[in-house]
Amino acid sequence: MKKITVVGSISMDLVTTTNRVPNSGETVFGEQFAMVPGGKGANQAVAMARLVPDLIEMIGAVGADSFGEEIRKNFTHNHVLIEHVGTVPQTTGIAQITLFDEDNRIIIIPGANDAVSSERFDSEWDVIADSALVVLQNEIPHQTNLAVAQYAKENGVKVLYNPAPARPTDMEMIEYVDYFTPNEHECSELFPDATLEETLTKYPNKLLVTLGVKGVTFHDGKAIQLIPAIKAKVADTTGAGDTWNGAFAIGITQGLSIKEATKFAILASHLSVQKFGAQGGMPTLSEMKGHEKYEKTWNIK
Ligand SMILES: Nc1ncnc2c1ncn2[C@@H]1O[C@H](COP(=O)(O)OP(=O)(O)OP(=O)(O)O)[C@@H](O)[C@H]1O
Ligand SMILES: [K+]
């Protein structure tokens, strides 16, 4: 089977839980601290490798620091292939997350992720050309995404592009990609002058919009489809979108229709929101197969 390649971000999430946030010049005691691997690229790679191990190739960069080492271990533990994860002089990307008052405040330092430049690719181009699918998000430079998407198109390789977080330059990508997967909020940022229905109708079988607890919507060429989410007892929705994108990528590359791949991915994200952390709840294929909503006709291997 051909590999799936993610070109994207890798970071360490530093998560502080506190009942008070300090004012300028003030020091407070918080409640808890956790360090968990994250970054949308890495999360989507792990989501896929949980379902199909040793078939997901990660292209990205970390720094020459202890976070980089931890992240490499985490990839290997999750059966993501990291021969093309480089080490650069910048620090490993981090997200400093403060959980306060049932909400979060996040500072991202891209660090090594800003150094993921297609101008430095060498054997990476062959990896991309040999892939069944390339998966992109928006936490590495836009120029790299654009160069990868253009190269993939020239070489007949399909691209799944998750434009998260949305950037003004995203629309330059759309003609080179096969699947475009914003969430509802990103979709209205990217298409501010049209209704959701108009936008979906303009990009049939290409634009899939995730609607959180409402599910996923797309136009199938004849009509707009809305596939409902599966209700869950929610522990933490972090990573729901990454799980959905990763599982959708697996479904599509294993021959499912857009509708069936969407349903497969909805089941994966339903399982993911029931555990803490972005990667914590990402299901394995056997966990998926054990669920009553798993359909035998999917035939995922
Ligand atoms: N509360 C929930 N219960 C069940 N399924 C959910 C829930 N939230 C999200 N999902 C599933 O996950 C998919 C993706 O969620 P969403 O549209 O919120 O993506 P997102 O905004 O990119 O997520 P995040 O940024 O939190 O990772 C949804 O289409 C849905 O199938
Ligand atoms: K989760």
Describe this structure in words.
- With 301 residues, the chain is an alpha/beta fold.
- It has a single domain (4-10, 39-92, 111-295), classed as 3-Layer(aba) Sandwich (UDP-N-acetylmuramoyl-L-alanine:D-glutamate ligase).
- Helices cover 30% and strands 23% of the residues.
- It has 9 helices and 14 strands.
- Strand 12 (208-210) and strand 13 (216-219) form a beta hairpin.
- The longest helix has 15 residues, at 258-272.
- It starts with a strand and ends in a 12-residue tail after the last helix.
- Bound molecules: adenosine-5'-triphosphate and potassium ion (K).
- Potassium ion binds next to loops.
H/I helix tally: 9
Main structural class = alpha/beta
Q: For the residues shown, what is the average pLDDT?
A: 97
Main sheet attributes: strand count, strand direction, barrel closure: 7 strands, parallel
* CATH architecture field: 3-Layer(aba) Sandwich
The rough form would be described as globular
How many separate domains?
1
Q: What's the β-strand tally?
A: 14
CATH overall fold name: UDP-N-acetylmuramoyl-L-alanine:D-glutamate ligase
- CATH class division: Alpha Beta
CATH homology superfamily name: Ribokinase
Hey, roughly how much beta strand do the residues contain?
Answer: 15-25%
- Fraction of residues in helix: 25-40%
| Pattern of helices and strands | EEEHEHEEEEHEHEEHHEEEHHH
Bound molecules: adenosine-5'-triphosphate, potassium ion
List segments where confidence is low: pLDDT < 50 over at least 5 consecutive residues.
none
Radius of gyration: 19 Å
